[in-house]
Amino acid sequence: MPASSLDGLIENVWTRCLVLPVLLGAALGQGGCRGERRDREPSPTSRALDVSSCEAPGPLRPLPSTRAGNEAEIRLGRLLFHDPRLSRDGTISCATCHPIERGGADGRNRSLGIGGAEGSVNTPTVLNSGFNVAQFWDGRARSLEEQIGGPVENPREMGSRWNEVVEKIAAEKSLRDLFEDVYGANVTEAGIRSAIAAYERALVTPRSPLDRYLCGDNAALGPEATEGYDLFRSLGCASCHQGVNVGGNMFQRLGVMKDYFADRGGVTPADYGRFNVTGRESDRFKFKVPSLRNVALTAPYFHDGSAATLEDAVRIMIRYQLGREVHENEVARLVALLRALTGNVPGELR
Ligand code: HEC
Ligand code: HEC
User: Given this model, what pLDDT does residue 66 score?
Assistant: First the structure.
């Protein structure tokens, strides 16, 4: 999909589903917005996934509990994701920064790449990333396959080159055999990208308490989280964090109602977000709205890692995205809801 149509989609979502309902103070996520979004979700990464399960009436949708994809390719991708030979000096694998058993992110403010080099933004989770409209905070990669080139060649992350990676992987007979089984071919860059992306698309975390609630199990959410879900919709969180990934389907400015960056200070080019991709002034400070699935596992928060706890992150959202005063009883209920978004990675994929 060309950049213009992706951005058109996003503008459209913004106007119809965020600005209008927020301005009108209307109940969010009902009717038109949700139905339309589903027809208009043509991202290459989400199309590959089977979004089925039960139907839910609200702006959030449950994750599918069945997995699409070729199991042998997923197993190969899992091995490659955990293989430090993807880095120049053999010290860093994808899982170093994205440990699956810890929510798919390493819990650091900034991850450390080869030689201890620090990145410029906080590491997002890889769990459920196949549902995102694009990859990276600024959406510069359109698919998971494309995204993989970033870390492998980034001198501050894995610092490698594809020809070296292919050579090192092909040197091991068991991996050569797996490539032969899955692709009927030798080890190639395209095969490595495809296998890792297939593994990432399988990293889906269904059956969280919220998913069970959305599928009709009213007791799955405790009373506090149920009230949190009502607030999430009535205050307007769901106008940005919505759909099957509770986020990941649009770009929005950090600081819609109040200037976040003026208050935080120390602005760097990494804070320009989507502007770095499109060069459009209106995209400055816009970021992909992150998925809130498993968010209780992935502190610290925001692209700058500035919020240490979920409570801090929610207070910032209330102030800067909704322009509202913070009430601690609301914060507690919203956090209870966010904690109910933790699902399970199937054991064989860890
Ligand atoms: C040194 C740490 C590090 C390593 C190694 C690393 N990543 Fe990342 N990953 C990051 C950071 C930081 C970002 C966010 C960068 C940005 O948005 O500009 C990211 C973003 C991503 C995203 C996008 C998620 C989203 O929601 O936007 C995916 C998918 C991903 N990485 C997969 C991988 C894979 C696959 C590998 C191995 C080939 C890998 N990463 C290696 C740190 C790392
Ligand atoms: C106008 C759109 C918008 C609204 C409304 C909104 N958010 Fe966000 N949210 C974002 C964006 C954009 C980010 C990422 C900002 C960044 O990192 O620069 C984000 C980030 C977050 C994060 C941190 C996630 C992470 O992995 O770092 C949490 C938690 C969160 N939002 C919760 C909420 C809650 C709860 C509400 C309602 C009180 C809410 N948001 C309302 C757009 C929005």
Answer: 83
